[in-house]
Amino acid sequence: MEDTADFDRLCRTVYRAARAGAVDCTDSFDLAASVLKFRPADPDATELASQSLDCAPANRLHRAELTLVLLAKADFAPGFADEPGWLVRLQEAMHLVNRDMAATGLPHGCRLRVRENAYAETWDGHTGSGQGVFPSSGADPVSALVAVADDAQDAVMHALWSAWPECPAHRRGVHARRHDGAAVWWCTGEGGHGVARIGDWPRP
Predict the structure, then answer these.
(1) Do 149 and 176 touch, CB atoms closer than 8 A?
(2) What separation, in Å, do the N-terminal and C-terminal C-alpha atoms of the chain show?
(3) pTM
């Protein structure tokens, strides 16, 4: 590869192909050769290069698997264009978080905006102070809910200049987290407890 942009384009091409179970042999060889340039003894890159030169139809699925392994080693991070379903999941999470906003008496919800990452924007244009929501957060529903709730909470607190949401029992701010396989609003009062699942905030 001539430069980083070329390598990134190659990674995105082979990622989408590998997810579909069929990678062009020339592309997979180029990926293996790029990895071997920096890791000459990498066994997965060596095997992929060999199989790509052979290009046997019977090894098509294994080449795709090796391609995904090498992409992970190269720290390739798929974006929303590579995994559009991740964005859909984040949008669904935003809908659930907005239900909690309505349940706590806020007149408006947040919009999910997208640049390289996604981010929550309040009714009056406030956003959080972090990097937003990475595309990979949309890989599963719980991660999506926790990430979107966390970013939306940051944005809403910038808009209100106060904690949101608050535990009804302890009157302190809660935080989004994964607990027992679910996305919940968690209060640290009295040793910690879940207030509600995200999207099911109790109405007064």
Answers:
(1) yes
(2) 60
(3) 0.88
